[in-house]
Amino acid sequence: MLRSFGKKFVVALAVAASGCQSTGHFYDVFDDCFSGCHDHMEAKCAWHRVSSCFREVENYHDFRDGFIAGYIHVMNGGGCCRPTLPPRKYWSLCNRGPDTNCRVISWYNGWDAGVAQAHQDGIGGSPIVTAQEIYHTNNPYPIELPEDLRRPVSSGQAPVDGEPVQPESDGVQPDEGDLAPIPQDFAPPAEQYNPPANPAAATEAVLKIQNVEGTVSVEETLTPPAPPRLEVPVQ
What we know:
Layout: H1 2-16, H2 20-50, H3 60-75, H4 98-120, H5 131-135, H6 199-209, H7 218-222
Helix pairs in contact: 2-3, 3-4
C-alpha cells in the first residue's frame, strides 16, 4: 500500500512539475497545506497545556474551537479584532436558534482566550512582519519624528484650525525683536526716468516729437479746441 501511495505521489509531482507555472502553483498549495497543519498542531498543543483551566466553561467544544482559531489568527499576523462572523457551521440555515447563539458566544470567548494565550506565549511578534508594525497604523502612542523632519514652533504661535499657516523663515526674515530689512527700490535709475518739471519743458518735448511731416500742430496738441459758444437771443 505504501508503495502504491509513493508511486502516485511521484506521478503527481512529475505532472505538476511539467511547467514553471504548474510548479509554482503546486508549491503554493503544498506550502499552504503544510503551514495550515503546522499552525493547527501548534494551536492544539497550546490548548492541551491550558485546557484544564477551562473544564467548567459552557459549550466546552465550541470554546475549544474558538481558542484554536484565535491562536492561529495571531500566528498568521492578526491583531486583537474579533472576526465579524463565526465559522459557517454556526450561522447556516440548519443551525439557527437560541442554542446556537449560546454556542457562538462560547466560540468568541474561546477566541479571546486563544489570542491572549498566543500573546502570552510570545507568538504575536514572531515570524511575520505586518504592515501595522512597519507603518505604525493604529498606533496608540505618538510617533517621534527624526531630527531633520521636525519643525521648530515658537511659543504661543501654534496654528489654529481654519487659519492659514505662515511660511517658515528662510533666513531672510529677521528674528523676533529685530528691525525688518529696508525693501529694495525696483524703480529704474533717475537718468532713465526724468519727467519734465515745468510746462515749458513739456512744450519743448512736444515740439521735438511733433517735428515730423503729417502730424498735427503743436497748438492742437497742447490746446485742444474749445466747444462752440451758444448765444441766446435777447427778447
